[in-house]
Write a structure and sequence with these properties.
single chain, about 350 residues, alpha/beta, Rossmann fold, 2 domains, 7-stranded mixed sheet, 4-stranded mixed sheet, 11 helices, disordered N terminus, binds 5-S-methyl-1-O-phosphono-5-thio-D-ribulose
Length: about 350
Amino acid sequence: MDESSYKVKTIEWQGDEVVMIDQRVLPLHEEYVHHRTWQEVGDSIKTMVIRGAPAIGVAAAMGMALAAIQSPADSYEALRRDLDQAATGLFETRPTAYNLGWALEEQKKIYAQPAYPDHIRARLKERSREILDEDVAMCVAMGEHAAPLFPRGARILTHCNAGALATAGYGTALGVIRSVFKRDPSIHVFVDETRPFLQGARLTAWELKQEGIPCSLITDNMAGFFFRKGDIDAVVVGSDRIAANGDVANKIGTYTVSVLAKVHRVPFYVAAPTSTVDLDVPDGDAIPIEERDPEEVTHFGGSRCAPEGIGVCNPAFDVTPHENVTAIITEAGVHRQPYGESLAAAKRGS
Ligand code: MRU
């Protein structure tokens, strides 16, 4: 098994359409959503047709290319106006994933200087393809760097879905697990179901099962039971944004897992490309945390499971302080505390 053996495409160009697998209906249905406009891409990011920080970045880059294709502008100035409007609209879809803003900045570089509109259209599409290819390559590199960190027969816990579906392919945390499994098929993965959106139960479990990687699905509140029994040797998760000091924003519940790992002296690894590292935020307190629809909490499988009118909190992410992180793995290598300098150097080299 290697990165090319993963058959399902998270997101791709088909002619002048952007096609995404619909992650809201997996694993029960394999359906694809076709997009012809940047507004449609924005809706798909908001409604979680596509999710996971690196995949959101790729979608935003493709959304910008669609904006250029759909714009009737025949002057640089008019095209630039349309593109700036699309960039603002796409940026506002989800606040925590840093890859979104990063990808938009990459696309803005292309039309920063006057050029023929058709040249800009072609370059935006080409750059979105490069961002996709680079993302897969970064995931594979992270897997290579991280695999030696895991003992033989490791029992690894992961939270949320940081797999092929959350990236352009292969995955960050799940890419690491894929690479470990390639060397050592005796590993076992504990998959947190990841309430309330069930990315673990629906997506991570689906990816692991497809590839025959041994795993057990657990509800989030079972993790402590398995740590205490000594059944977890390592944790690996992805990230939506890493602050300059190494604080890590990831799916709600990640912080709780990091505390359990620390108490039980289990290594806690974070795998993320440098496009997730935000050197402009000094620490995790400055990372914006998305608050999502209360219905994700009050409903289960489309049916209400809480009283009408109940107050609800639904933060989609939390911050794990760098003290709880054993190592951060990027495409540049394995970073250890203190993270500041080595993350900045990795980012400069990217
Ligand atoms: O709300 P989601 O599903 O977009 O959240 C995704 C996560 O928290 C992932 O762990 C993170 O984006 C890393 S994905 C490689």
